[in-house]
Structure formats: structure tokens, C-alpha cells
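Structure record:
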Amino acid sequence: MTIHLVDIEQTIHTCPANPDGHPYDIRRTLVDVIPGGPCRAPVTIRCGNTTTQIPCHRHEPATRQCGACRVIVTERTITTRTLTPEVSA
């Protein structure tokens, strides 16, 4: 299982169309990648007289991938900044 560790920073603002506030700028920073290792269930592809084995993550949907090929994204921190409208005097 490959684990991607990310930090998320989002900026929220309010506008007349959505007074409750909504994020308009979301940035994700990849902090660390913990590799899952080599594929444990490679898929054999045949083309003419040639056979090739490829990792299952390149061919199978996520539900049928082996544990080493499956990817998990973990959010380490989520930082939220709120912009307030400037009031002119």
C-alpha cells in the first residue's frame, strides 16, 4: 500500500452569491511518500507473439489491485484562512 502524506491549505471568502463562505484557493503539498513495494499480482498482457507482465495498478480498477499497488492519500494538516472583506471609511 503506497501512502501519500499531504498538507492542505485552503482560503475561504464570502461573496454576495454565497454569504456562508466557500473555498476558492486550495493548495496541496506532498510531504512524504511511503512506497508499497513491488506489485504482488502482475497482469499478463498478450499482443501477437509477445507477452508482457505489467503491475496491476496499470490495468485493474482500484478494487481489484493488490495491496502493494493500492494508493492511500492521508491528510496530515488542513489549514483554513478566511478572507474578510475590507471596509472603506
Remarks:
- The chain is about 0% helix and 60% strand.
- The first strand starts at residue 2 and ends at 15.
